[in-house]
UniProtKB/TrEMBL annotation:
Protein name (Swiss-Prot/TrEMBL): ABC transporter ATP-binding protein
Stated family: Belongs to the ABC transporter superfamily.
Residue ranges annotated for the ABC transporter domain, each copy included: 4-220
Keyword Nucleotide-binding attached: yes
Amino acid sequence: MSILQMEQVSYQYAGSKKKVLKKINMAFEPGKLYVVVGRSGAGKSTLLALLSGLDLCTEGSMYYEGQDMKVLDRDAYRAKGIGVIFQGYNLLTNATALENIVLSMNISGSREKDKREYALRLLEKVGIDRDTAMRKVLKLSGGEQQRVGIARAIAHEPAIIIADEPTGNLDGDTEKNIMEILRSLAHDQGKCVIVVTHSKAVSKYADELWGLNAGNLVFLK
Ligand SMILES: Nc1ncnc2c1ncn2[C@@H]1O[C@H](COP(=O)(O)OP(=O)(O)OP(=O)(O)O)[C@@H](O)[C@H]1O
């Protein structure tokens, strides 16, 4: 049973004649790690904007848990349904790792009683110990920052995790680390994890590998 579905989805920017996504059919299931690989200009950012509910497709339909994205509350979808991980981490660098998570929990309206303890446990799960959690993000390595980024993305327990070039700034070993965490979120916690990247190296972690080429999404393996 898919959690997110795309049916004949096309996208055209306002004022442009070109379709940057072309009749995409795709069903994302829980418990799987999807990698979508595409070159610059292939339509990755556009696809991410649709998956994360920032924009609506101009043709076709998208469904989240069977509900048409055109009618569902996309603010609620963004706040509760998905967690997003960015290449540049997008953390508050002058705050500690712990503060980043707690702040994000406050913004998403978390009802957790002890947010601090919850955040510390979450950080531990992604390999950030309590000492590291107390340090300013500015003083953490890229790999550590991305772990914090992952903890933030999953703090509100979304069913879907969308990662935009999550290892773009990291070396090979750290990339492996981060991809293994993402894979474990899919396999051990049943999340639907979607990684969009131009990196072929990330492809090997995929349960399903898809290629985006000039707006066409094709199954690779
Ligand atoms: N606001 C816009 N108006 C018109 N065309 C756009 C707009 N934004 C992007 N495009 C075009 O849509 C196509 C896909 O762009 P998109 O940004 O989705 O690609 P991408 O795969 O994310 O590329 P990159 O990896 O370089 O960021 C490109 O041809 C781009 O020029």
